[in-house]
Amino acid sequence: MERVGVIGAGPAGIAISRYLISEGFDPVIFERSSVLGGQWSGPEGQNGVWPNLHTNTSRVLTAFSDMPFASDSVFPKNTEVHEYLETYAAQFNILERIRFSTEVRELRRTDNGWTVEYVGGAEEFQRVVIATGRFHSPSIPDVPGMDTFTGSEGVISTYSYKEPERYRGKSILVCGCAVSALEIASDLPAIGAAHVALTQRRQRYVLPKFAAGVPSDHKIFTRYGALAQEALPAAEVSRQLKEIVIEAGGSPEQYGAPKPADDLFDAGVTLNQQYLPLVAEGKIDIHPWMENVDGRTVAFADGTKQDFDGIIFGTGFNLDLPFLSDEIRETLDLDEHHADLYKHTFNPDLPGLAFLGMWDQAGGYFVPIELQARWVAYSWGGAIKGPSQSELETGVAAYRARRGLSQKTRMNLIAVDFARAAGVEPNPSEWPGLERALLFGPLAPSSFRLSGHDPLSGAPEQLGREAAEFGSIVNSAFNDREERYLELIYGTEG
After folding, report:
1. Which one of 136, 301, 330, 366 has the largest count of C-beta atoms within 10 Å of its C-beta?
2. One domain, residues 107 and 7
3. Mean pLDDT, rounded, of the chain
């Protein structure tokens, strides 16, 4: 049984280990923390969760295909996600393979494969999977004078937001407009901050987590959306997504926030339930981006100034893999935003090395991470044919051509891409009664266990339950909007 080194015991490390085991490999998992779970557990400094954090993805899409989330919470609390991962690891005999409190110092290539050097030793493997995650190194933009800030609560990133109570009675500025920034900006009024303001470079559309009693990720991250991205002009895809967003929660200017760009892709979208109502109630002020900082005073691009006790940056993360050898880094042309990889996974000049969960996206990671893990395990184990050297080289060349452009994708796009690579994308026409669920229902992990290698016997029933749970997809008959959308793609009604 071939041993495979796996670096990281978060969701990606757990998923790849589960499928490596099923394909006959023996994973050895190196985890720097004393517990598994990655972002969902561990000591301060090794995760980015805060006490009140709930997922921004529904429980259906925050799970793996062979163990549905058992919680009654539609959007589980961070501790529930940790418990889910622990249960999953125990169920699939992963726990005993994890070497806790073992920090990897260096990964380097050798004549026989790869050497993983860690605190206290080193081991060789023919194959290694890097699954450490990409949300550990906050990206803090340069703002003139930020180093002079003298507010009592200082300057931190959302990654370090662990003690909300310290901000009670304080004036706080939150920087950014992505998920963590809006979640924390919404958290602060509830814990008693005296004044909360948000500064942003542009106004995004804000999609509430619930729309008409249905989790919004069930509507916006669909297989149809991935097909539309391939078949329709970008302007039409933007129009359709914007139609869903506006119908669900209106446009920001209706709440007193700035008006976003008309094109949804130019503006961007963030998922949050409370932010816009709090803006409408005057509990969060919005400012353009900062010009400079002087002591406690922040000057904004519109000429206004305000004093603050604390500043919290929610401005994204850098790709940070400090344990890679110089040779690997050079081969990947690695920087804070890019790594030369075919489908975010393989490099043609680094055989036997795979990366999991290292891309930037909107939406939850559990579904695409599992699909990526299946692709790697199936191709390494011989269940499917892996990408050829030519495919790897062509894919990396295409990736390099996009360097400097936005690296963010959407969960449904990358999930379908991985599903095709793994040979497990279902054909809706082969599943009578599930066509609507497969196209317009939640992109549930069970939908990728219907066909291909390693199907799951109860997957059709599970998918039906998940699609019907909130009444979003209750039968196989397409509604009028869905019929129009399908006609645009196929030229005929669904």
Report:
1. 366
2. yes
3. 94
